[in-house]
Amino acid sequence: MTPPAARRRPLAVAVAQPASISFDVAGNAIRHAALVRRAAARAVVFPELSLTGYELDADPVGPGDVRLAPLVAACADTGTVALVGAPVLGESGRHIAVLAVDGAGARIAYRKMWLGGDERRTFVAGRAPAVIAVDEWRLGLAICRDTGVAEHASATVALGVDAYVAGVCEREADRAVQPARARRLTADHEVWVVVAAFAGPTGGGFDDTSGRSAVWRPDGTSAVVLDRHPGGIGRVVLHDVASGSSRGRSGQDPP
Predict the structure, then answer these.
(1) Domain ranges of the chain
(2) Sign of the CA dihedral running 58, 38, 251, 98
(3) What is the pLDDT of residue 102?
(4) Cβ-count burial of 242 within 10 angstroms (0-12 exposed, 13-18 middle, 19+ buried)?
(5) Considering the entire predicted model, what is its pTM?
């Protein structure tokens, strides 16, 4: 008799809405670290350009930047991988990127492929989709406008992913954009969708952001949705569909 396939351990994932201050990388890293410690999650997802605010002329943040030390320490103490947003410098120019931070330090995990608006004036588009492995789970990475491009989702999912994970910055007037995109992603690809959005003012003309970071199950239902206030955390435990669970449980940490 063939033994049943081993099931993966569930993965605790959180979305975070930091109260980011424009250009204050040192202070924002401390605020990120505090949210990591509160989240009690294996992976914590932050919004687009969360370390600098949505300031397109902010200086690049390198993986070895000493200002990230409090965040690295928090990840080391909690066993967390933090996916944070920052401008970075590459061989071809400046990129909007995701830094993966853990107890060993930081690395550039993904560069935004689909730039929007004024971003094209100061940044260079990334060239390839990316996946980060956390334990036995594969998280496909995206940043804001990427989530609305079917080609990006298809190329990312083709790498083999369990969840499509994005950091975004949206105005309150555009608050319906991300839920609509998430439902399309789950319908097309049947993966978890995890979106961390800015809450509160964040610079770059985004004085009234949407907040409402959320996680959607592969069947398109929402597992957790935050409000518009900075400082909130939403935590969901991802399970394999075969586990017999309802595909996850969720909890929200109030702001």
Answers:
(1) 11-253
(2) positive
(3) 98
(4) exposed
(5) 0.92
Q: Is the pLDDT of residue 249 over 50?
A: no
> What mean pLDDT is predicted for residues 48-53?
97
Check whether domain 11-253 has CATH 3.40.50.300, yes or no = no
Q: Which pLDDT band holds residue 205 (cuts at 50, 70, 90)? A: confident
pLDDT bin (cut points 50, 70, 90) of residue 247 is very low
The tokens describing 56, both together, are 């397109």
SS (H, E, C) the chain: CCCCCCCCCCEEEEEECCCCCCCCHHHHHHHHHHHHHHHCCCEEECCCCCCCCCCCCCCCCCCCCHHHHHHHHHHHHHCCEEEEEEEEEECCEEEEEEEEEECCEEEEEEECCCCCCCHHHHCCCCCCCCEEEECCEEEEEEEHHHHHCHHHHHHHHCCCCCEEEEEECCEHHHCCHHHHHHHHHHHHHCCEEEEEECCCCCCCCCCCECCCCEEECCCCCEEEECCCCCCCEEEEEECCHHHCCCCCEEEEECC
- Residues 157-185: tens digit of each pLDDT: 999 999 999 999 998 888 899 999 999 99
